[in-house]
Every structure is written in C-alpha cells, then in structure tokens.
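Long-time lurker. I teach an intro course on protein structure, and each term I like to show students one example going from raw sequence to a predicted 3D structure in token notation. This year I'd like something fresh instead of my usual example. Would anyone be willing to generate the tokens for the chain below so I can use it in lecture? Attribution to the forum is fine with me.
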Amino acid sequence: MIISDKNKIIFIHNPKAAGTSIYWALYNKDNGVRKEGDTHSWAKDHDFRFYPGYFKFGYVRNPWDRMVSYYHMMVENPASHTGHPLWDYFREINPIDFQDFLTRCIDYVTVGDSVMSFTTNQIYYFVDRYDKLLVDFIGKVEEIGIPNRYLSLDIPVTNESKIKKDYRSFYTDYTRDLIANRFKRDIEYFGYSYGV
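-- Reply from a regular --
Happy to contribute to a lecture. Here you go:
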C-alpha cells in the first residue's frame, strides 16, 4: 500500500487499475509518500488502527479491459519482474496469444508453496475475510477525472499501454464468457458489463 502521512491518505494498489498514475498524483501532493508492505498487498494485510483518521481508497477496472492490459504488459515487458512467481509462470508457459493466455492463466496457479492468480477478483483487495469493506472509497478507472466527493487528485496518465484497440476486439464469445464467470463477483459488485 502507498501512504501519504502529510495528507493522511492510504492507497491500496490493485494491479492494472491506474496505480502508477495514482502513486504519482499522491507524490505530487507529498513527495514523502511511502510504501508499506508489498506494493499490491491487500487491505486485510494491514492494521489500520495505526492510521487513525486516514482516508483509505483504491481503484478497480473493467475486468475484460484489465485482462487485455495484463496480457500486453507481460508481452511488452517479458524480462520484467524476474523472480516473481506469476511472471516466471507466464514466461514458462509462453502463451501464443491472448486466448491461450486466458485459458492457461485464468485459474489459480500453484508456484512452489504459493497459490497465485492473475485473475483475483478486485474486490478482495478491499475487504476482510468476512467481506467487510476496509476502505472509504473504491473508484473506477473509467471514471478517473470525474470529480467525486471523496478525493481531489490531479491524476496524470503514466505507464500508458501501447494498446490502442478497443478491448472487445481481443475477445471471442468463449473468452468473453470465461472472464464473465471468473470475475462474476467484481462485475456484480461494481456494476461492470462487457462493452461498457
């Protein structure tokens, strides 16, 4: 998680949901921002009692768009994150295309003693083991830039993907439904749909 003590803000960085841009927005308000734990750690992994009065937030992204972004990030930066179990798994299976990536990486992967997934529902970054929400605000990447009553940040576009095509062009009926089933919880909770 990312912490700004000066502004009393905690950002839970859900992967592939504008996290780098939000980090820089926080840094621009407070160059003393710091990380605690793993960059992409879940809210339930932290004891927020040590941060009374801090505003806790995160962002989510349309699951179909997010998976296209995940795939292209890994294809465009294959040598990145050496030693990270999921990246190493990706390099080992070497998917031939997006559909192969989805069908081979959609479930949980056992890597050594760890069970990991590219496709964890995003809501799990923000709830405890009883499904109690631990953050004050969850925004949608698709709505960044739209003023909201919770957060006033000038969020720059950074780490922009080279993908310029509509995410729907990457899907077949089969893979569209695969993501709909795998991310059912996110789709229902955040009101996402294919094409919106």
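Some talking points for your students: The CA atoms of residues 109 and 115 lie 6 Å apart. The chain has a mean pLDDT of 83.
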